[in-house]
């Protein structure tokens, strides 16, 4: 019978599934995330994340302004990434994917606050060839906007066979991820976790590392986008499964008749080890394409200590909601049972806002002496989904480093709308325009040369020298959208149903700050940002919505952008791209981002 009913009502179905029927290599390539080996291997293989103890010295998460001050460590962390095609079966269903160094999820990047990160990205996507671009989510890229990795905005795509070496400062710390930003490519597998160690007032004993939550699709991203953007296609894309650290079981009997793709039941779920009595830090990342995740661990309370790259006053809860792109760091104390105990970790896609065929992701949490060949028998918390498709209340989490809301010098209202174009293709409009990127002419390079007039379909807004920009996002669609602004942590002033009353601001003395915030269906989101010179993508992080045109670029402090010295490698990447496109036709099936 259907997995949806089977899994949720009767967890015993899964008992056999704890003994993985596929090897880790088959499900996740060279990634060890999700296995009990990960913490050990991570310890030995990392780039020496903490060579000199804590290089941030007396800087703290509550007293240091991270936007103006960070440690000058002089340490460089170097990584080499090759993006290639491959075949894996994260949930037992075999799929053509794109992998970073043969791994899904891709290798973890680890550094200290203030280190420089260098990643040489090599495009080895062949048969067929495809461009690529990698974005380092949440980094401010102060003075280096060309390292941000947004095609048509900050750079030309990396041509097949070519490389681009990204170099940027980890000026913020905490948990984040990298992902491809070319078309909806990241949902095809080009994603990986990033951990930047920094000061923390919160006390914990064990760092469990990344816990990546991602909806999963059995079709390739290309076929999904092609189908969605066909005449009379649907903007609602159903996921097939939900993964924790790239793993989950799947009921192969639910595969459509006639689909002969190899599929194995009980491929294997992710496993974690907890130490009885100890407090563990879990770094939750919603690295999916579309779904709103609701994360819980049976029998355990979660203490939220950071939202995105922003440490917050500890707040206890049983469930944490994450829209795509969001991260939440939680502490969990293993105090629910004895050393032989085991519990289910669950991440459930919110049915109210997420089209999902199998919404519930499971992973097993084992205390010290628990038998890891047996499935936990724990029961889920009884916490009904409020169905608002919004983030948890803004007043529950307050940034540790206090920043009062400055006076806005301008306010821009941007509506979100769905429409059908003249070919009956359903697309998104953001502030009146359905965006289509031009891969050959990144806005940043034109701005750097003093050209600030662009075709309408690039959807660029210039904020000149404004000291603080307020943006009201009016969502006139029945879907929720995780709004993401590159290069900034924005203040979240208000979020709710209908339109904003124009005055109510949640905690103006110290509003929530982060880099992604959900706007609910037919609701509003009011955010504000202090300018950081550059050209920055501002878009919905749902891969399918961005593909459908829900994307804009903001020019911030144009004179400063014009005065920047953009390294030669950025122009070289455009020349390489131009050479490749003169011999190949670029199949730009969507907005390009
Ligand atoms: C490039 O990709 C091909 C598969 O498409 C693979 O066989 C080869 O090993 C990859 N090269 C590198 C350096 O990863
Ligand atoms: C949160 O829960 C922990 C136990 O899990 C408790 O020690 C702590 O005092 C609680 N914190 C708050 C802010 O309620
Ligand atoms: C998961 O969500 C589905 C609907 O999206 C709901 O029916 C089910 O009860 C939830 N399961 C758990 C364990 O919360
Ligand atoms: C409608 O949108 C699709 C997808 O972006 C595009 O291929 C097509 O050319 C558009 N049709 C018109 C008439 O603009
Ligand atoms: C600015 O760039 C756009 C897009 O490439 C181009 O159409 C326009 O002619 C340029 N304007 C100037 C003044 O060069
Ligand atoms: C602020 O931004 C608006 C666009 O929203 C622009 O019209 C205005 O000139 C800018 N003001 C300053 C001082 O740069
Ligand atoms: Cu969206």
From TrEMBL:
Keywords: Copper, Glycoprotein, Metal-binding, Oxidoreductase, Repeat. The keyword Transcription regulation does not apply. Gene3D superfamilies: Cupredoxins - blue copper proteins. It comes from the Eukaryota. It holds the Pfam family Cu-oxidase. Residues 84-199, 210-369, 443-559 form the Plastocyanin-like domain. GO terms for molecular function: copper ion binding; oxidoreductase activity. The keyword Glycoprotein applies. Belongs to the multicopper oxidase family. This is Multicopper like protein. It comes from Apodospora peruviana. The lineage of its organism: Eukaryota, Fungi, Dikarya, Ascomycota, Pezizomycotina.
